[in-house]
Amino acid sequence: MQVKLGIAGLGAIGMAVARAVDAGGVPGIGLVAVSARDRAKAQRTMAGFKSVPPIVGLAELAEAADVVVECLPTSQFAAVAAPAVERGRIFMPLSVGALIDHMDLVERARATGARIVVPTGALLGLDAVRAAAEGRIASVKIVTRKPPMGLAGAPLLVERGIDLEGLKEPLKIFEGSAREAIAGFPANVNVAVALSLAGIGPDATRAEIWADPEVTRNTHTIVVRSDSSDLTMTIENIPSEENPRTGKITALSVLAALRRLTAPLVVGS
């Protein structure tokens, strides 16, 4: 029996996932509906699909699909998340930073039978962090380095009047909790929130953000100290051709998460 997939948002990530699923890249998963702000553009982009899915409203995705993948601006998060949870679907958020402001959805999912599955996204090692969290974690820290223009326009920078144009050397522009990081950089550090949910929570997880003209890739280093292991891991993400602010691996992470739903063999905790 095929698992029915709905995708909210057809930007760089959503469209990459849609193309792969339409081409049969994830056995047992079928694309049955999408939601897009620009319907005409979505129709043009999907014109070459084997089977063009209907374009529906955000709330309607949960009516059509078993699994709803969210690839939207944070302002639209609740419009797709709430219906998916109410109908007992599997909900995969990419705007995971918005989830910490809607943790009531987790309790609601207990009642409806829904599951909220957060893909690893642009990070690494969440399986190891989850395993360490079964014991005692003493500390978790993430250091993010991005090219300055990849951070331009972030609310915290605007609020503080920080201009990154022409930056000549690395500049630490934030240090604090993961919760504070996502509030100041809602489009940039969803990875910090994903890490915090896998480990010791958004208030205890520490985050640093650097604007670094010396890097060409979004780079994340996580450091975990626990009673079972000490972990230090770094990932350098190759930008997507469609959207340089998005790493190629993010869409691939969604496909890997979807594959786990139907695969006869699953590797990793």
Which architecture of the largest domain does the CATH hierarchy give at level 2? 3-Layer(aba) Sandwich
- From the spread of the alpha carbons, the general shape counts as globular
Give average pLDDT, whole number. Answer: 95
Which segments are poorly predicted (pLDDT under 50) over 5 or more consecutive residues?
A: none
Fourth CATH level, the homologous superfamily of the largest domain? NAD(P)-binding Rossmann-like Domain
Query: Termini distance?
Result: 25 Å
H-E string: EHEHHEHEHHEHEHEHHEEEH
Total beta strand runs? 10
Strand content: 15-25%
| Total domain units | 2
User: Percent helix among the residues?
Assistant: 25-40%
Describe the structure in your own words.
It is a single chain. This protein has two domains: 3-121 and 249-262, Rossmann fold; 126-244, Dihydrodipicolinate Reductase, domain 2 (2-Layer Sandwich), CATH 3.30.360.10. It contains eleven helices and ten strands. The chain has helices at 12-22, 39-45, 58-64, 77-86, 96-99, 104-112, 126-133, 155-160, 178-184, 190-198, 248-262, and strands spanning 3-8, 29-35, 67-70, 90-93, 115-116, 137-146, 171-177, 206-211, 218-226, 230-237. The strands form two sheets. A five-stranded parallel β-sheet has the order 2-1-3-4-5, with helices on both faces. A hairpin with a 3-residue loop joins strand 9 and strand 10.
